[in-house]
Amino acid sequence: MENLIRPLIVVGGAVVLTLIIGWGTDLLLRKADERHNETPLWGLLRRARIPYQLVLCAALLRGSYNEAELFEEHRIGIGRTLTLVLIGSAAWLVVRIAAAIVETSYSRYARAHRDPARVRRVHTQVSLIKRVVTAVVAVVAAASMLLTFPAMRAAGASLLASAGILGIVAGVAAQATLSNVFAGLQIAFGDLVRLGDTVVVDGEWGTVEEITLTFLTVRTWDERRITMPVSYFTSKPFENWSRGTPQMTGVVFWHLDHSAPVEAMRERLRDILRECPAWDGRDYALAVVDSTPNTLQIRALVTAKDSADVWTVRVTVREQMIRWLCAEHPYALPRVNTAEAVLPSGGIPSQDGTESRRARESPGTGRG
Q1: What is the chain's mean pLDDT, rounded?
Q2: 147, 199: one domain
Q3: What is the pLDDT of residues 28-50, one digit of tens each?
Q4: What is the per-residue pLDDT across 310-331, written as a single tens digit (0 to 9) for each?
Q5: What is the CATH number of the domain that holds 268?
Q6: Co-location of 125 and 79 in the same domain
Q7: Are 203 and 164 in contact (CB under 8 A)?
Q8: Can you tell me the distance from the alpha carbon of 240 to that of 198, in angstroms, rounded to the nearest whole number?
Q9: DSSP assignment, residue 227?
Q10: How do strand 225-229 and strand 239-240 relate by DSSP bridges?
Q11: CA separation for the pair 175, 277 (Å, rounded)
Q12: Residue 184 belongs to some domain of the structure
């Protein structure tokens, strides 16, 4: 009977004490969060209550089961299991605390700076820092768990002796992975591309949605996801429309008849932009940039605060200008001339000044 009651008392006492300490700590964090609304640190630390309680419970059981002389025949196995749980939960707790500190620093920076480009840059760096910290803590925890086994400790000397050779072999085998890792760090701290940036890669326009140490995800305008290695952005050219400032200038082209009312189109463009909420009011222009035997090429320049708004302005201007031309100046639309050519009364003179017989004899021709 005593062999059954003693384990229940030890385990039950450890669990109850863990719940009491965890509840008290959570209560203190909740009050601190209510008192200090200017920082999210205390609220973020509350997310670590589960690994915190696991650490407490594992530590209490690990320290008490030896004194209670429980399960003598399984003493080594139980002790090693509790040690593994303690290491794993401690690593989990460290990751949660580090994430809370990093996210708190980012939120303070985002509140203090209004520049979206700088905020996105810091967001990208913060995301990669959290991933690096998680990876380092996981590696250290895994190594600590392995060292709890005597066989691993005995083999430690030989492993350290061959670490150089293994490092060279691993570096050659994982060359692509390592290049992506270093490229990810270069992107994060070199400010090449940030989360939320509008980019054009391989002819695809989209927004950077996720950046990790090895790959980057771009969400296209039609909601597709393009995943590519981060080394692409350090080895090949790409367009970053959010670099520096998100303001953009858009272009709209029309091919119209030579009789198009260019001055009236300038006034109409001004009226269209004044009614378009996406136009930022910085600038606009309209000019004839080219001509062909049949049409004029007219170009309008419009501005907007970012790539999404410049697209809206372009399609609005194109649609409303065509509608206005069809209603008010239909003659300005491109036409195919099928009327007969009218010859001069004296005919078409030849190079020697005499009237061309072919011109006299040929009837009017048409153009198509």
Answers
A1: 76
A2: no
A3: 888 887 787 777 777 777 788 88
A4: 889 999 999 999 999 999 998 8
A5: 3.30.70.100
A6: yes
A7: no
A8: 6
A9: E
A10: unpaired
A11: 50
A12: no
